[in-house]
Design brief:
alpha/beta; about 400 residues; ten-stranded mixed beta sheet; single chain; about 30% helix
Length: about 400
């Protein structure tokens, strides 16, 4: 790789960080066409693992790009040309596609917000929504815990909810409506908070190798929060679950793989498979084109929600999470049905049942749905109120499963 190319890629990265995505895109395309003159850079090119995206090339040399180095994105410019030739149209489409991918990665993997959202959540009389802190050898994380007024006489289930990029525990609680379900059915809900000091846009670092293993990094912190609640509250240790959206969905999948003895089931909404990426270049490719992840010897029951019109996390990632889950089991029978939500969203639900009748995996594919929590409340960010309720369906699925 020439020094000219490396310096050019470093400049493109600096332009991306500064929000100058049009200039960055043009520079990257120019450098790629010079470095790889025979490469197909049409709109169907997937910039997959075969592409030179390693840190040594300078294309994506540090984590700040995938984490998101800024919160307000600059406007993009359109290129106008009279009756462009096919090659020019393809080049323009490639620039547009790459620019949009850079925009989303620079935003931390979530679309830009168009308005502000609730930062506080109404709490019924007798209930609590308290802020706590967990510390261990891996660091410190704050979290919020919802304790319902309606508490059964027996120990309660616990659901750990991992928010998406740019979100907060309050925002995620408002958008998912999980606290209201906790009040109705009598369970606890925990919302770990990812600080901007750990990731510029508050994304869980699902793409870092050090944050994918048991007793290391963020998994150790989330597990520590879970064990604190188990110690201090009347939690049923056999019914602890974890769910998340986007980066939080990818982190939830990691938690299920790393701690199958702690979590009885997992909910992944618009997330990625475990091991879909272990560095920045792979994360870039996985978000844009999908990734299968690694083979897992053991998986916990998993429910997956995926919008088929998701342009932030490629919809094939939902199928990858399903495939990763079912591959660890034999003799599962798929049972599919179609439906339509009250809000008019068509969906396909596929169950994977064991011979015992136990559902090991459930996959919800939602037509015309983007990167948002299905059936969520508009008071929270990244929600789609017209979809089937991911919160209600996850709760139903979770309560079927307990530690053996």
């Amino acid at each position: 790789m020439s020094n000219h190319f490396t310096l050019g890629m470093a400049k493109a990265t600096a332009l991306t960080k500064a929000g100058k995505l049009t200039e960055a895109t043009a520079l990257i395309q120019s450098l790629l066409s010079t470095a790889r003159p025979k490469a197909d850079i049409g709109p169907e090119a997937d910039f997959g693992p075969e592409t030179d995206f390693g840190p040594e090339t300078g294309l994506i040399p540090d984590a700040s790009v995938i984490e998101g180095a800024f919160t307000r994105l600059g406007e993009t410019e359109s290129i106008v040309a009279p009756k462009p030739a096919p090659n020019l149209r393809r080049a323009k489409a490639a620039r547009s596609s790459l620019r949009e991918t850079l925009r989303k990665i620079a935003a931390g993997g979530m679309p830009a917000r168009s308005r502000s959202f609730k930062t506080d959540v109404a709490v019924p009389l007798g209930a609590e929504f308290i802020t706590m802190t967990h510390r261990n050898a891996q660091g410190t994380r704050d979290y919020k815990l919802y304790v319902p007024a309606n508490q059964p006489s027996r120990a309660m289930p616990l659901i750990v909810m991992l928010h998406g990029c740019t979100q907060s525990p309050d925002d995620f609680a408002a958008g998912t409506g999980m606290n209201a379900l906790a009040e109705r059915h009598g369970f606890l809900v925990a919302y770990p908070a990812q600080p901007s000091g750990a990731n510029a846009n508050k994304c869980w670092n699902w793409f870092k190798a050090e944050d994918q293993a048991r007793d290391r990094g963020e998994p150790a912190l989330i597990a520590g929060i879970t064990r604190d609640i188990l110690r201090d509250h009347p939690v049923d240790a056999a019914r602890i679950y974890v769910a998340g959206l986007s980066a939080g969905g990818a982190a939830a999948a990691i938690m299920g793989a790393a701690y199958p003895d702690l979590f009885s089931a997992v909910g992944v909404h618009s997330g990625l498979a475990v091991g879909a990426a272990t560095d920045i270049p792979q994360a870039f490719s996985a978000m844009r084109s999908g990734a299968t992840g690694k083979i897992l010897a053991q998986t916990v029951p998993t429910i997956v929600f995926q919008g088929l019109a998701d342009t932030t996390v490629h919809s094939s990632n939902g199928q990858a999470v399903v495939a990763q889950t079912v591959a660890a089991h034999t003799g599962l029978k798929p049972i599919a049905k179609k439906g339509k939500s009250a809000g008019g969203k068509s969906y396909r639900q596929t169950r994977y049942d064991a011979a015992s009748g136990r559902t090991i995996c459930e996959y919800w594919e939602i037509d015309r749905a983007g990167h948002a929590w299905a059936g969520g409340d508009a008071n929270g960010s990244y929600t789609d109120p017209s979809g089937p309720s991911a919160s209600e369906e996850m709760l139903r699925f979770f309560l079927q499963h307990a530690q053996q």
